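[User] I have long wanted to understand how a fold can be written as tokens. Those tokens are not coordinates but codes from a learned vocabulary of shapes. Could you go through the record with me and say what the backbone is doing? Thank you; the sequence and its tokens follow:
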Amino acid sequence: MESKEKSLIILLLLTTLFKGIVWAAFVPIWHAPDEQAHFAQVQYYAENRKGLSGDDLSQEVFESERLLGTLRDSQGNNLFTYHPQYNIEYTDSSIGKYERQLQSIPLSARTVYIKKEAAGYPPLFYILSALGYTTAQPFDLFVRLSFTRMISVFLAVATVWASFLLSRSIFPKRTLLSIATASLVSFQPMFTFVTAGVNNDNLLNLLTTVLLWLLVDSLRKGMTATRNLAMFITLALGFYTKQLIYPFIPLPLLVVIYDYLKKKKGRILYKNIFFIALILAVAVILLMRLLNSGYLPGWPMVNPQSPMVDLSLSTYLKQKLPVLYSETLPWYWGVFKWLGVVLPLTVLRVIKIVLAVSLFGLVHYFLTRVWRKKFTTTDWQLMLLIFSSLWFGFWLLLWDYMLVRSIGFSHGIQGRYFFPNISAHMTLVVFGLWQLLKKYQRIIVKASVLAGALLNFIALKTVLVSYYSVSPISTLLKQASQYKPWFFKGGGLIVVFVIYLTFLINFLYSLIAFHEENKQKNSR
């Protein structure tokens, strides 16, 4: 990696870091997706040094939810859910109405449990996030939550780095294309929102991005014992993070088959026999579990007593597929304030147009390849990303179908559920635009990154307007400071925002300069 390329990616990672800190500083407590449930599990692990058992929502978190309107009913709704106009009562200072009361809750309230609320997922993310919690353990709830959020922000930075490596493996001679892919992942509004809060999706998204990078890298460079081990470890960590790792289990086998067919040497299979056996063993165990009990570990259980056990798959798909376009797609790009606020309609329309143009570019590219009967390694890498995205989408639909049959209603397929493939999505979007508009490829790279940064600012403004009075600035700072730690009050908010802007401007300037230098060099 050249020094200018290295400087550019470092600037992007620093921009991602401080962007995440800005969002974590402004998003109110318990307003990141399902944050209270994930934090409850982190707190339980950190305070008890053991796994969940019995009730798991502490009195401290319960009181904060009750006072701040985020306590959910049996349907998972609270005062904010689907009510974008609702807000808590703000004071005319940087101290919230109940802030002192919540800060004075005794230490014993951290280990007195009211009910079951914790997410209940495998422990890896929560053990990792407990590092942030325990670092701030002597302090109040707001400090501990902010430190715990920082773990997710760091995971976001790592995911952007892995996205760059993935794209670089596909386009080894197209640095700007790889930078654009990583930038779109970083600036994606919903990705930024989720990673600004406590959510185990953030670790899963990192692991699946790393796995996809290892897979496409193996397609280009071949399978090795080191890559096989790295894939197996990544999958194993995924098992200890979230059950949505299941769809990724068979993907390494596709790479082995490709490697064998490409080289047509039996020793390819022999070299990877242990790795193949491990993957097949896991797949067989899960399949037997599914056949014997009707469900996978951590997935919805359906039995004859289930409310909608007779729901047919065709009926479900007729109801659900239109929703994927009308609801899931907009939510993929951003849904905030407990599902009550989305991006402006004009912005969503522009996004859909860009996606349509990119899709046309991809279809045109692959039809050309089929017509010429010529496929490069890059083509197979892109097809693997397409397959991974479609295959994962099928599993999400299957999971939701089983859930509806199990409990009688759907929690909805939120756009963020597709983020395990976000690096694949952004790679395909950029490449589709890149191929369709070949005369303006460098402009496409610059424009896509600038558009991504602008989209992130629009999303941040959308979030701020939904919670706070943004004018005058003094009122915004007062309201945004409430129920926050001392370092995210008033001047602290200004400092982190200015640092973010500084890195962002430097990154965009360096990107444009890098672009122009390459253009001049290539023109000679």
About this structure: Strands lie at 57-58, 113-115, 335-336, 341-342.
